Amino acid sequence: MTASASRSLSGGPECPAPLAGDRVQLGHGSGGKLSAQLVKDLFLPHLGNDVLGQLGDAAVVPMVGIELAVSTDTFVVSPIEFPGGNIGSLAVHGTLNDLAMQGARPRYLTAGFVLEEGLPLATLDRVVAAMARAARDAGVLLVAGDTKVVERGRADGLYVNTTGIGALEADFRPAPDLVRPGDVLLVSGAIGRHGMAIMAAREGLSFRTAITSDSACLAPLVERLRAASPADVHALRDPTRGGVASALNELATASGVGVEMDEGSLLVPDDVRAACEVLGLDPLYVANEGILVGFVAPAAADAALAALQAHPLGRDARVIGRATVDHPRLVVLRTRLGGSRVVDLLPGDQLPRIC
Amino acid sequence: MTASASRSLSGGPECPAPLAGDRVQLGHGSGGKLSAQLVKDLFLPHLGNDVLGQLGDAAVVPMVGIELAVSTDTFVVSPIEFPGGNIGSLAVHGTLNDLAMQGARPRYLTAGFVLEEGLPLATLDRVVAAMARAARDAGVLLVAGDTKVVERGRADGLYVNTTGIGALEADFRPAPDLVRPGDVLLVSGAIGRHGMAIMAAREGLSFRTAITSDSACLAPLVERLRAASPADVHALRDPTRGGVASALNELATASGVGVEMDEGSLLVPDDVRAACEVLGLDPLYVANEGILVGFVAPAAADAALAALQAHPLGRDARVIGRATVDHPRLVVLRTRLGGSRVVDLLPGDQLPRIC
Question: Is B18 an interface residue toward A (CB < 8 Å)?
């Protein structure tokens, strides 16, 4: 299980309760504790193997002398179209980013559609166009596809799976379990935009400024980091479902380190903050689709930060914290007021169907 | 587009009418003319490239000195469980078979689930177990996965995408456009079982014998053919959506040959024939998930047939026709009564949601 599902394999500091009830709940797809539980208690007993058990965003598959990275992700975002993109561009960015976080150079993509009878062809056309544009811009080739149609009321417009293949090299292999105490925690930009763009579109909220999703391919940013100091980039993650809070929890658990984050250094756009307040959400848990968090060796932190800032996507890159020997596997937020609180995984959905 | 979608790129002898209406219809997912039209008029203008334009079941992607085969397929079969398998085993077999038809040795699989809120966990457990068993039996590794959950009424139990990666070698490269006049047409077993098993389960039909899906991994059969005479195996196809009739049409079109098929040599199990009569269906158009059709050079036909028959899955293998220089791009059935009729592609769904 890649993406949040595989990351959730690392579990959290607490052990979730055994599977409750006998039916799938919405929270099982949330990327939080319920997802982790489903993977641990149901999928892994059947499917577990060394590759699937890796905690990365993409599977590393040795093959005739080289190693490929493979990642799969199904997109069910509602609404299909939103400020800053649609399900097509999102499906390309999301899967390519999973490859990039593993240190792979994305090369190939597949797309599998489930279409609901009655979906306007014009909508589908826009989605496919956005997908094509995103793939072209990223320099990847969509190499296989499949389309199924189901009856009205058996889907919600359309769903799309993308699977990506990337090339891995030995000199650049960031991984979730390679964070070391002292590593500097970087984020490449403002947080919370994708999730709140979706929520605002879904709820018909109108703010003074329309919130735009940050959906973007992060591979160019990763290339900059790689060029700056490949061996010092210890772990990378795109904080999608579950937001920065969940991504950092997963890295902390995988590496057995504590993470300290400074609230004051996080960039939350005003419109995101306002929308979060209206809806009672914490921006730390809101999905992003165009930023990365990374842990780099202290000596390389300045160079890594400069490398990110030199790219338009990383213009707002900043240091937001560090890895510690204290409170292993816990993420602690130092608040603006000088206090601190533990930032835990959420049990289930804060925002369903966000990707 | 792999599977029926990519094959349909070859079109049919007639040119379909332009896209009618402005909405997706069920027939757009059928693998027939409407599917081909959607691919040609909507997907390819955006996404077309040399790899996607190949007519095979799996994409061939050159990568650092070797070539991979990649195939993706989303499964929406209803019901989820049926005699002979469930959506999990089907999703493994279907994608591995697409790789095998390309001459690739299947190696890796990914799985992307869309689960409907309220799906019994016990059902999901059976599906995942069947998936694991099928992958293990085939000797492939499931290397990445993803799970999404949508609200009740936004799916139909569960859908699953599988994407497969296989290894290709230069000495064995059957392809849809390599059929030559004179080639012998083989089929590895009885036709119509998968589609009629689904229809019988769906309609609650009860026949004296329950029809069992033929769902199976065909890679071992392909290995036998390869061992027998690799250069003489010109084209292979698993006749899934649209059945043997559609598969042969696609090969005839891709290779520019005519195909003659002898009705009397086709093996249609009695229960399949009876169910087809009740429902007014033609077994030639009914989906199979555990047989292959192949065109082999005449000199190698006996060896190829013997190779198939030596494996349990190919026990009922037989010669059912040949490729001709006559009526290029048309499939003609020589009937038991000595007549002949053209076997064309269907415009849309004979059987929706069969895979």
Answer: no
Instruction: Rank A165-179, A293-307, B92-106 by mean pLDDT and report only the highest.
Output: A293-307
CA distance to partner chain B, nearest, from residue A148 (Å): 5
B77 and B143 both lie in a single domain: yes
CA B119 vs CA A21, A331, A350, B81, B154: distances in Å? 11, 34, 21, 13, 12
B215 in contact with A, Cβ within 8 Å: no
Concatenating the DSSP letter of every residue in A107-144 gives EEEEEEEEEETT-BHHHHHHHHHHHHHHHHHHT-EEEE
CA distance B125 to chain A (A): 7
Domain boundary among B168, B187, B219: B168
CB contact under 8 A, A149 and B28: yes
- Residue B200 within a domain: yes
> Does residue A351 register a pLDDT over 70?
yes
Tell whether B96 is within 8 A of chain A (Cβ): no
Q: Do B153 and B233 fall into the same domain?
A: no
- Are the Cβ atoms of B64 and A65 closer than 8 angstroms? yes
In this predicted structure, the answer to whether residue B11 has a pLDDT above a threshold of 60 is: no
Substitution target in A67, A74, A353 with the highest count of B β-carbons within 10 Å is A74
Q: How far apart are CA A347 and CA B190, in angstroms?
A: 50
Of A24, A46, A71, the CB nearest to B115: A24
Chain B residue numbers touching A116 (CB-CB < 8 A): 24
User: Cα A42 from chain centroid?
Assistant: 23
Name residues whose C-beta falls within 8 Å of residue A246's C-beta, 6 or more positions apart in sequence.
Answer: A4, A7, A31, A32, A239, A285, A345, A346
Q: Which two tokens stand for residue A321?
A: 């914290």
Give the count of domains, chain A: 2
Distance, CA of A297 to CA of B183 (rounded, Å): 63
Given a cut of 80, whether residue B237 has pLDDT beyond it is yes
* DSSP structure string for B96-119: HHHHHHTT-EEEEEEEEEEEETT-
Contacts of B89 in chain A (CB under 8 A): none
Same domain, yes or no, for B189 and B163?
no
A18 touches chain B (CB under 8 A): no
CB-based contact A295:A183 (threshold 8 Å): yes
* Pair (A193, A155) in one structural domain: no
Mutate: best of A9, A19, A28, A47, partner B, most B CBs <10 A: A47
In a domain, B353, yes or no: no
Distance between CA A321 and CA A301 in Å, rounded?
11
In the predicted model, is pLDDT for residue A179 greater than 70? yes
Compute the count of residue pairs across chains A and B with CB atoms less than 8 Å apart: 313
Residues A143 and A215 both lie in one domain? no
The closest CB to that of B72, out of A65, A110, A125, belongs to A110
pLDDT of residue A16: 40
Q: Give me the mean pLDDT over the A72-83 stretch.
A: 94
ipTM: 0.86
Q: Which domain holds residue A203?
A: 176-342
Q: Does any domain span residue B27?
A: yes
B63, B118, B161: residue with CB nearest A24: B118
Query: Mapped to the 3 state alphabet, what secondary structure does B13-63 carry?
Result: CCCCCCCCCCECCHHHHCCCHHHHHHHHHHHHHHHCCCCCCCCCCCEEEEE
**Contact criterion met (CB < 8 Å) for B42 and A121:** yes
pLDDT 10s digits, A188-198? 999 999 999 99
B29 touches chain A (CB under 8 A): yes
- Write the residue in B2, B26, B112 that is nearest to A161 by C-beta: B112
Q: What are phi and psi of B134, to 5 degrees?
A: -65, -40
Q: What is the CATH number of the domain that holds A228?
A: 3.90.650.10
